[in-house]
Amino acid sequence: MTVEAALGLAGLAVMTVLLVAGLTVLTSQLRCTDAAREAARLLARGQPHEAAAVVHRIAPAGASLTVQQRGDAISVQVTARPAGRLLPAVHLDATAYAVAEPGTEAGNAPG
User: Which keywords are on file for this protein (predicted)?
Assistant: First the structure.
């Protein structure tokens, strides 16, 4: 009876750790997506400093921001690793697109 209980508790502990890791990855991916969307929106409005700040605030710690602009088209990619270095094989990224608003600095940039 004791061996079965020990194996059952070990299995339950493993399942709990896997569930927490999965939820961490899921919430980190959602945070990357939200950060990319907000950064693209702010860049389209001509607010690059606010875009970098919002990625730092919304995305997981250590996330990086990559911006590409061709004419009025703006592409934003946010990449991160969930839970720091605890899940080294998992790399998250989210991409968002926007079109620069007319009259903004981004909207007047040459292509």
Answer: Membrane, Transmembrane, Transmembrane helix
Contact 76, 69 (CB under 8 A): no
Q: Kindly state the average pLDDT of the residues 78-94.
A: 82
Domain count, the chain: 1
Residue 104 placed within a domain: no
Does 110 reside within a domain?
Answer: no
> What does the alpha-carbon distance between residue 27 and residue 56 come to, in Å, rounded to a whole number?
16
Q: Is residue 107 part of a domain?
A: no
Burial 77-95 (b: 16+ CB within 10 A, else e): bbbbbbbeeeeeeeebebb
Q: Which of 68, 58, 95, 97 is nearest to 79 (CA)?
A: 95
As a whole number, mean pLDDT of residues 30-35 equals 96
For the record, the structure tokens of 27 come out as 């919430």
Q: Which residue range is the domain that position 5 belongs to?
A: 1-99
pTM above 0.85, yes or no: no
In this prediction, residue 109 carries a pLDDT of: 46
71-76 mean pLDDT = 94
